[in-house]
Amino acid sequence: ILHDMAKLIIKTASGCLLGHEIRAKLDDSVADIYHDLDGGFTPMQFMFEWLPLPSYYKRDAAHKKMSDLFYDIVQERRKSEKQNDDVVDALMRNSYKDGTMMTDRQVAHMMIALLMGGQHTSSTTSSWTLLLLAQNPEIQEELLKEQKEVFGEDLKDLTLDGLKKCTLLESCIKETLRMRPPIINVMRYVKQNCEIPNTSYVIPQGYYVMSAPIITQLDEKCFPNAESYLPKRWLDPSIAAGTNKTPTENVIEEHVWATMNSSSARSSYLPFGAGRHRCVGEQFAYMQISTIISVILRNYRIKLNTEAGFPNINFATLICSPLDPNLIEYEPRN
């Protein structure tokens, strides 16, 4: 499922963000190039970027191929007087505050960063969501019922306004992001000495601070039954408002339960980060994943492959994707 979602995400993201002529150039071979590019981005790379590993050689070769592909596209755009309402044109037309324009090669590299920023995380989240739904057939039927309530019994075409009304679908994605956040840590650079309130601890300037969503989001103190896939927990108004209070033996502890739209950096739910560097593609990712899940569940019932079972997490890569084999079986609804 991960391999198929990777291809689907890169095609839909390129069509939506970069324009249809760019989408037309991205055949299945580009997904394979992205696979090599992704293979070189591991946690170890940040400490030992110079290691002579085959995956690093493949990564560098893939980066050159992608850079040349996007550079040629930018060059073709320069020759044409036609304006396009997409990110590529915005990068080509706009300048920095000092008036400096980006070079075509810089634009090409920004295009790679744009696709990479969302391709891996969204394909991973789509895969985990489908795998978790495959484990829970009753939730699949509830989602189909919701689709019919919002879009009609004949399941009219999806719309953005309609997807916003699919609260159970939104909750399923939120719960997936809670249990299987694609990024296992979020780091911030300390620009000035930072005192921890009510303690003697000081984080010195120049250090890095790390938050680990996969720890806080699976903490029973923050999310009861944390290891269980319970999408309806997000339909609780107190959780959505971030005011849920959980009683303990001696004291009432208030836990910050933030929704996907919350910007609170104090939240225990951080799949998209927080603060001024919070992921700018959050709403696009939600729309994209919601659309994919909706189309699949309208047409198929899904279940786990019996022999493969439910996959473990691949912690060796920068994005916590499902380990191979990650197989799903489809049964046409009609």
- How much β-strand is present in the residues? 5-15%
Treating each run of at least 4 consecutive H or I residues as one helix, how many helices?
12
| Unreliable segments of 5+ consecutive residues | 245-261
Termini Cα gap: 22 Å
Broad shape? globular
Helical/strand content category? mainly alpha
Q: What attributes does this structure have?
A:
334 residues; mainly alpha; Cytochrome p450; two-stranded antiparallel sheet
General description of the model:
Heme binds at residue 279. This is Cytochrome P450. With 334 residues, this protein is mainly alpha-helical. It has a single domain (2-332), classed as Cytochrome p450 (Orthogonal Bundle), CATH 1.10.630. It has 12 helices and 10 strands. It has helices at 2-18, 20-25, 28-39, 54-79, 87-93, 104-135, 137-151, 160-164, 167-179, 213-216, 237-240, 282-299, and strands spanning 186-189, 194-195, 202-203, 208-211, 245-247, 252-254, 300-304, 313-314, 321-322, 328-332. The strands form 5 sheets. The protein has a two-stranded antiparallel ribbon with strand order 1-4. α3 (28-39) crosses α4 (54-79), α4 packs across α6 (104-135) and α6 crosses α9 (167-179). The longest helix has 32 residues, at 104-135. Mean pLDDT is 86; it is low at 245-261.
Summarize the structure.
The chain is mainly alpha-helical and 334 residues long. The chain is built from twelve helices and ten strands.
